[in-house]
Amino acid sequence: MDISRRRLFTKALNRTGLVAGEDRQKLPWERDDITFTDQCTRCGKCAEHCETQIIVNGDGGFPSLDFKKGECTFCYACAEKCPEPLFYEETQNPWNQTAGISECCLAFSGVECRSCGDSCETRAIRFQLSAGAVAHPIINPKDCSGCGACIAPCPVSAIKMENSNE
Q1: Taking Cα atoms as reference points, which of 161, 107, 157 lies closest to residue 137?
Q2: Pick from 59, 60, 73: which is nearest to 28 by CA?
């Protein structure tokens, strides 16, 4: 894909053909970005078979996850239906990412909100109680699967996926 002409009409792209500074949310079990952008035909089969319908067309038509639409159930349908060798085997870890909470979280401003913790099936998000203050969310990265269930219910979009070093 020749991205040089595309830059005339869009934002500046990075070397993977994606918008520089904007991270595309990778699909579970997806191989590296370079392999993905080189070999993905953008056929849409992954999105068509996603049981939670969170796979959307991202920049350049490449599939991306939109956790604001729901969570990943790790069903592996996106990888199974892909006609290209873009994914690792299902026996491997789907990704090395966990949820991270930014400073714009309502709890850090003294507003009681536990929507992220209520939606976390693995109970990776717990709340640290403090006398005379609102409880603050704490994420245990060992319990977080990176499914994204906590992202959609957050009223201020304070939760993002971050790469973990595990």
Answers
A1: 107
A2: 73
**Three-state secondary-structure class, residue 118:** helix
Q: Are 159 and 116 in contact (CB under 8 A)?
A: yes
Which stretches within 3-100 are classed as H helix? 33-39, 45-49, 77-81
Question: Per-residue pLDDT for 38 more than 60?
Answer: yes
Strands (E), the chain: 55-57, 63-65, 97-101, 125-128, 136-139, 159-163
pTM: 0.80
Greatest extent of the chain over all pairs of C-alpha atoms, in Å: 58
Tell me how long the chain is.
Answer: 166
Q: What is the pLDDT of residues 85-113, one digit of tens each?
A: 999 999 999 999 999 999 999 999 999 99
Q: How far apart are CA 32 and CA 24, in angstroms?
A: 12
Gap between the Cα atoms of 138 and 121, Å rounded: 15
Cα 156 from chain centre: 17
Q: Which helix (H) or strand (E) holds 119?
A: helix 115-119
In angstroms, rounded to a whole number, what is the distance separating the alpha carbons of residues 79 and 139?
28
